[in-house]
Write a structure and sequence with these properties.
The complex is a heterodimer.
Chain A (H helix, E strand, L loop, with lengths): L1 H31 L6 H19 L3 H30 L6 H21 L15 E4 L2 E4 H23 L1 H11 L1 H6 L4 H22 L1 H4 L5 H16 L4 H21 L4 H15 L28 H23 L6 H24 L10 H18 L3 H23 L4 H20 L2 H8 L26 H4 L1 H23 L2 H11 L1 H6 L4 H27 L9 H14 L6 H16 L5 H15 L11 H5 L11
Helix pairs in contact in A: 1-5, 1-8, 1-10, 1-11, 2-3, 2-4, 2-8, 2-10, 3-4, 3-8, 4-24, 4-26, 5-6, 10-11, 10-12, 10-17, 11-12, 12-17, 13-20, 14-20, 14-23, 14-24, 14-25, 15-16, 15-17, 15-23, 16-17, 16-23, 20-23, 21-23, 24-25
Chain B lengths: L7 E12 L2 E12 L3 E5 L6 H9 L6 E6 L2 E2 L5 H6 L2 E4 L11 H8 L12 H7 L1 H4 L11 H13 L5 E5 L7 H16 L3 E6 L2 H7 L2 E6 L2 E7 H6 L1 H7 L3
Parallel strand pairs in B: 3-8, 3-9, 6-7, 7-8
Antiparallel strand pairs in B: 1-2, 1-4, 4-5, 9-10
The chains are: A mainly alpha, B alpha/beta.
């Protein structure tokens, strides 16, 4: 019994940071409809700034808590700066475009933090006055844990009072439901949004600062907490602070007991719980359905139409250039080096990946935050077949798209029932399950529970965890650089062409109809769920194909191929290229892969990339391909006269 | 009251509004004078709501001019237009369903202005006795008629000089429509100017001084409401379904 109570308390204390970060994310989303990817970075900044302040003034109990609060306010101020300088300019941009901007902010903050505080993990100082352990039923429990347990309810009550008892809070709740109406009643939303960004960011900063004595500060905190915060928000219900609280408590307790029952399984467990909750309550425990008819602020999307002759010619020329490149390499090796071929292979891999994601995102209207699951999943399927079944290249290669399609078929069954942000979050959750499955080598662990282990009783290496799977190469006939180049270019171009055919076939029309008006599509007898499911699986297959090309070009595969950052990369490529055009993902992927390569030799390449992304967002709010719709693009006859957007 | 009765308060000149590439309004011109109730009549999809939304700034007109109390307001943000004293009562009521009646009223509250009647809870509850008994009820748990009263009351909390009423009779029982008519006349008696978009000819005849008929995004008829009520030919051409 005492053990149980102590575990419960430990669980509750670990819920504190989760709740603080998640409630901030939830509040920001509720009012601005922006999924703030940079929220994890604010948490990380809270920890670093808090660390520095605690070093300076935190020797007394008063000083320590003052340092924590100042850190929270400082991070809130950073959130305000982001809102005023960046978000405010793009609220009218197409939906989801703000995602890219906040993604740029993540990269900038990562490098600024690295530059200011260095790459070493910082070990947090203990809180003065709370260094000891309290005795609970004969078991010791750190006093600081008890302080953390107290913080969440205090903040919850504070937020409740703020939202329920002040005019500002009433306006925020009203704006969460209907921003337009609030504006029409004479409320200047701009300052409402700024205030919300301050509050939400400060909560993230507070979460980061209060956990210093337990976890310190490190550079991986941002993505680590982001996935957790997303799950808490989604399970609690987007926009619901109480929901975030109960979900954080649930996961805090789940983590503590999960470790005891199934070590190495906490992540998987967390995402499984999320999947189960969303199946029964698609809008989370305390969330409300997304209001239909709240039109997004951007201009209406242009319909997809056959490409203009000039665009077709450009496409053909680009393909011809790609096919001629190895010849140029043989004739003029000084001009077209071997590295150029390697870079083009990589670009084609990501073009295919981005196009496959765009397949469901653009025409399907389904934004997946977790498409790396099918990229890495496909690669692992092929690699495992090579490693454990000695499958030849020619067979293993095709296991990637097939395996990825099956995975997408399975995950898709759950996801396609939801829409909007809930769909996005569920895809993220499944991707994290897949990542944890590989990273923690679940198959090895499971085999060991059946008594199958190596001679020392340790789990067998199946996925290899962090070490990945190595030494997986194509057959000799395909192994030369030029042969593999033609395989990669040929298969990607063919796959792009097939996807294009799908989108101009009745299947594609149906998808777009369902995206633009689900109710009307259903009313004319379209089984929308089935079409979306099929599209999801198809997209998974093409993504898996990209994964196979990637695997055999590198000769190895690591869990990083399934991680969140990889999914976000693909998302970034699609959004940066322009969701409204089939050429968007191609340009986006090519530009981003090239930029990555260009900047990667520099020490602060993330900063540069982040700034470039932010600049692109501000200058080309329709994505790179949106350029065709500008006056210059029209003059070059890349778009129809009526398709001017700027 | 600063401006003399009968002077123009709200004027639209040649308003063009598009949704994407589809032109919804072409050259809409109309005028509301101080203390007047003006009906904007038309069938479904004729452009009534778009006219109202163009005035309050929820939709941006591509061309034309809108003046309110002597200010050019086209291109301003909705909150700026609203703060000049122009109240907007939306077509589908748009009650904040998660907020109580009192909180819904709070969202609408704005400082009082010199040239408009001032509203507070007591005065509103005298006008809408039903609301007085349910200040703590969630907006989402009210009947359609109660919501219609609340949405008007919420707009009045901004102490407007003029209100835009978008199809207040939509979906309401005839007895409630009578109440809406009484409310409109009450507000008129307090000196408010009202632009009423309606399909319900009965309600419009009861309350309006003048009327415009809009059809396919253009004004087709303009005249005193009493004349329109007797002009069967015009009614048949533009209003009968």
């Amino acid at each position: 019994m005492a053990d149980f109570i102590v575990s419960l308390l430990t669980g509750l204390s670990s819920a504190a940071a989760m709740f603080l970060v998640a409630s901030g994310l939830s509040i920001i989303f509720g009012v601005t409809r922006i999924v703030n990817f940079a929220h994890g970075s604010f948490y990380m900044l809270g920890a670093y700034i808090g660390y520095t302040l605690v070093q300076a003034i935190g020797s007394t109990a008063v000083g320590f808590w003052a340092a924590v609060l100042i850190a929270a306010v400082a991070v809130g101020a950073i959130g305000v700066v982001m809102e005023i300088l960046l978000l405010r300019r793009i609220y009218r941009a197409p939906e989801l475009f703000q995602l890219i901007a906040t993604f740029g902010v993540i990269l900038v903050i990562q490098d600024v933090t690295l530059w200011v505080w260095g790459s070493e993990d910082l070990v947090g100082p203990q809180a003065p006055g709370l260094k000891g352990a309290a005795d609970i039923l004969g078991k010791p429990i750190p006093e600081y844990d008890l302080a953390l347990i107290a913080i969440s309810p205090l903040v919850l009550v504070g937020l409740w009072a703020l939202f329920k008892l002040t005019r500002w809070g009433t306006l925020v709740r009203a704006a969460t439901q209907d921003r337009q109406m609030v504006a029409a009643l004479g409320v200047n939303q701009r300052w409402l949004f700024t205030g919300v960004l301050f509050l939400g960011s400060a909560l993230a900063g507070l979460g980061g600062a209060v956990q210093i004595p337990k976890g310190g500060a490190d550079l991986l905190m941002d993505f680590n907490i982001l996935a957790v915060a997303f799950v808490v928000v989604v399970v609690g219900g987007m926009g619901s602070v109480f929901g975030a609280f109960w979900a954080a408590v649930l996961f805090g307790i789940l983590q503590t007991f999960g470790i005891q029952i199934l070590p190495n399984s906490t992540l998987v467990l967390m995402f499984l719980v999320m999947a189960v909750v969303l199946i029964f309550r698609p809008w989370g425990l305390l969330g409300m359905p997304e209001t239909l008819g709240q039109a997004h602020p951007g201009p209406p999307e242009q319909p997809l139409r056959p490409a203009l002759p000039r665009v077709r010619i450009l496409g053909g020329a680009a393909t011809a250039l790609l096919l001629a490149l190895p010849v140029a390499h043989l004739v003029l090796p000084q001009l077209v080096g071997a590295f150029t071929l390697v870079l083009v292979i990589e670009i084609m891999v990501f073009v295919l990946f981005a196009a496959a994601l765009h397949f469901i995102m653009g025409p399907g209207g389904m934004v997946s935050f977790g498409h790396a699951a099918y990229f890495g999943g496909g690669a692992y399927a092929a690699a495992l077949l090579v490693k454990f079944a000695d499958a030849p290249f020619e067979i293993a290669f095709w296991a990637a798209p097939v395996g990825a399609a099956l995975l997408a078929f399975l995950f898709g069954w759950f996801c396609v029932r939801l829409s909007g942000v809930y769909f996005a979050m569920l895809t993220l959750a499944f991707a994290q399950i897949a990542w944890a499955f590989v990273f923690q080598d679940m198959p090895g662990s499971v085999l060991r529970t059946f008594g199958i282990a190596d001679e020392f009783g340790a789990p067998l290496k199946i996925t290899g965890g962090d070490d990945g799977l190595n030494d997986i190469w194509p057959s000799a006939w395909a192994g030369t650089r030029i042969a593999y180049y033609y395989i990669a270019v040929g298969l990607s171009v063919a796959a792009l062409w097939i996807m294009r055919r799908f989108l101009y076939a009745p299947f594609g029309y149906t998808l777009r109809a369902g995206r633009d008006s689900p109710l009307r599509a259903a009313a004319i007898g379209i089984d929308l769920t089935r079409h979306r499911w099929l599209a999801f699986a198809l997209s998974g297959a093409f993504t898996g194909l990209a994964g196979a090309l990637f695997l055999f070009s590198k000769g190895s595969v690591f869990p990083t191929t399934l991680e969140i950052a990889r999914s976000f990369d693909a998302l970034l490529m699609v959004l940066l290229g322009g969701v409204q055009s089939l050429f968007g993902p191609i340009f986006g992927a090519a530009a981003l892969t090239w930029l990555n390569d260009l900047f990667s030799v520099l020490s602060y390449w993330r900063f540069l990339l982040g700034v470039t992304i932010i600049a692109l967002v501000l200058l080309l709010p329709q994505g790179i391909v949106g350029f065709a719709g500008t006056r210059l693009g029209r003059r070059l006859r890349l778009a129809r006269p009526e398709e001017i957007t700027a | 009251m600063t401006a003399p009765a009968g002077a123009p308060v709200l004027g639209l000149t040649g308003i063009d509004t598009f949704y994407g590439r589809a032109q919804i309004l072409s050259g809409v011109s109309l005028e509301v004078r101080r203390g007047e109730v003006v009906a904007l009549l038309g069938r479904n999809g004729a452009g009534k709501s778009t006219t109202i939304k163009s005035i309050i700034g929820l939709v941006r007109p591509a061309g034309g001019e809108i003046s309110f109390e002597g200010n050019a307001i086209q291109g301003l943000e909705p909150f700026q237009i609203s703060r000049l004293g122009l109240g907007y009562v939306p077509e589908d009521r748009r009650i904040f369903t998660g907020l109580t009646v009192a909180e819904n009223l709070e969202v609408g509250r704005q400082p009082r202005r010199a040239n408009a009647p001032e509203w507070n809870h007591e005065k509103l509850f005298a006008l809408f006795p039903n609301l007085a008994a349910m200040t703590g009820r969630l907006g989402g748990l009210m009947s359609g008629g109660e919501q219609q009263m609340l949405t008007i009351a919420r707009t009045l909390m901004g102490n407007p000089t003029t209100i835009l009423l978008d199809e207040p009779s939509e979906g309401l029982a005839p007895v409630i429509v009578e109440q809406v008519a009484k409310t409109i006349l009450d507000l008129k008696a307090q000196g408010l100017s009202i632009l009423l978009s309606e399909q319900n000819l009965h309600l419009s005849t009861l309350v309006s001084d003048r009327a415009y008929i809009i059809e396919k995004g253009s004004i087709r008829y303009e005249g005193p409401m009493a004349d329109l009520a007797e002009n069967e030919e015009v009614r048949g051409a533009y209003l009968m379904v």
